[in-house]
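Case study 2.
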Amino acid sequence: QVQFVESGGGLVHPGGSLELSCVASEKITDIGALGWFREAPGKDRRLLATITRDGDTNYEDFLKGRFIVSRDNAKNTFYLQMNNLTPDDTAVYYCKSIFPNGVWGQGTQVTVSS
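Prediction:
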C-alpha cells in the first residue's frame, strides 16, 4: 500500500496561511484519488478535500473556499494550501489514498493561536 509523509504544520496566528505537503512512497499517478483529513482535539477525523488522478478537486462546504488542494506528479507530492486560518482549524492533518485504499500516516500538527 502506498504510504505518505505529511509535513508543513506548525504554529500560525489567526488569519495566517500554511501549506502542507504529502509525499508519497510511489508514483502518485497510480493513485486514483487522495484525501486530506484532519482530527481536531476531541473530535472525529473528518474529510476536508479530495483530488483525483485527473486533478479534479472536491471540498467540504464548511471550508468556504479557504483551502486548496493541488498535486505535483514530478515530485510525487500533494499539497494543501490553507488560508485565513482560525483557531477552529487547529488539528492534526493527514493525507491518505482513497482509491486505492491506503494507510494513515503520522499526520502533521497545525495550531492556530494568537
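The mean pLDDT is 95.
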